[in-house]
Amino acid sequence: MTDPARETGDVDAADGVSADGGVADAETVDPTADEPELDRGLIEAWAAKMITNPDRAYRASFYVATIFFLVTTLFPFYWLFVVAMTPRNNLSDVGLLLPAGFNPAAFIEIFTTLPFHRYVFNSFLIATIATVAVLLVGSLAGYVFGRLRFRGRNVMLLLVLVTSFFPPAAFFIPLNRLFNTNIDVLRPLISAGSLYNTPYAIFIPLSAIFLPLSIFILMTFYSQIPDGLEDAARVEGTTRIGALFRVIVPLSAPGVATAGVLTFISVYNEYFFSSLMTDGRPGSWAPMLEGILRFQGEFAVQYNLMAAASIVAVLPVAILVVVAQEKIVSGLTTGAVKE
Amino acid sequence: MASVKLEGITKRYEDVTAVDDMNLEIRDGEFVTFVGPSGCGKSTTMETIAGLTLPTEGTIEIGGRDVTDLPPKDRGISMVFQNIALFPHMDVYDNISFGLRLRKYDQEEVDRRVAEAADIVQLEGMMDRMPKEMSGGQRQRVAIARAIVRNPGAFLMDEPLANLDAELRVHMRTQLQRLHRELDTTIIYVTHDQAQAMTMSDRIAVINGGVLQQVAPPLECYNEPKNLFVAGFIGSPAMNFIEGQVIDGGFESEYTQIDFDPETHGVTPGQEITVGVRPEDVFLEEDARKASSPTKAFDAVVDVLEPMGKEMNAYLLFDRDVEASAEGRGEGQLLINLTPDTEIQEGDDVRIVMDRENVHLFDRASGDAITHSLE
Question: Which of B78, B81, B98 minimises the CB distance to A228?
Answer without folding.
Answer: B81
